[in-house]
Design a protein that fits this description.
Layout lengths: L5 E6 L6 E8 L4 E4 L5 E14 L2 E6 L3 E4 L5 E5 L5 E8 L1 H12 L5 E2 L4 E2 L2 H18 L3 H19 L1 E2 L8 H15 L7 H8 L3 H12 L3 H18 L4 H8 L4 H12 L3 H6 L12
Antiparallel strand pairs: 1-2, 2-8, 3-7, 4-5, 4-6, 4-7, 4-8, 6-10, 9-11
GO molecular function: DNA-binding transcription factor activity; sequence-specific DNA binding
Protein name: AraC-like DNA-binding protein
Organism: Planomonospora venezuelensis
Length: 284
Amino acid sequence: MSAQEAARFWRSPGLPGVDLLKARYVTHRFTRHVHEEYAIGVILSGVEEFDYRGARHRAGAGAVVLVDPEQVHTGHAGVPDGWAYRMLYPSVRVITEIARELLAGRGTPHFPQTVVSGAAGAHAAALLRAAHGAAEHGDDLASSTLARTAFGALVRHHAAYRPARPPRSAGDRAVRLAREILHERLVDPPTLEDLALAVEVRPFTLIRAFKAATGLPPHAYLNTLRVRRARSLLDSGAPAAQVAAEVGFTDQAHLNRHFKRVVGVPPAAYQRAGTYKTPPANRT
């Protein structure tokens, strides 16, 4: 990480089901990836630029960023000095329960608007910053109250429920089977040709259908699965070198590179977050 950059990932007992990241990035670039959780945050300074849902977005100071679970996105500096932000990653369960309580709706809410700025986002941005700061200083009551209030405001004013999915096609079946194979074969994945043969479609047909369904080609999807499994193993206390082998990366350096491109911090920093300690304040 550049000397100008700093990132801290942690969890707070006051915010169960919510991961926290406080960072300043200049040269760091997030690869195309997805999260199981929502990614909700506020830009403190600079500009973050990211690709999401087929468009390039720019979020400047004071803007709130809203990314849905399992949606492919990137992230990099939009200005030479980079950007600083505070991110919260609430689980689907956390946001769904809030939506159920406030809106009496069913299903998983999503956020059609990706960047909320100006007066429309000012209140939520202030709440998110306050909740994040309270969690950083170990104030469980304040962080839980402020975070729930912030999430509630975002759900009330910016969330919607997804329409019913259209009927599945033959391509959907091939992608579903291919994903099952990749889940089962993290360590020894098949070639594209063998994967296509197993699901009974042509290789280029599989690539197109897979990207249409997941936003990623099969090899990138596999690396996302590996990082997701690595997080689970690191949470259980497994050493990084062992984790790298168990999820199919060639060595620990390979794990470190892909992990940081998705999570924003290397595996060692992520694992330290497993046992909560109030991190020292900094000026990021």
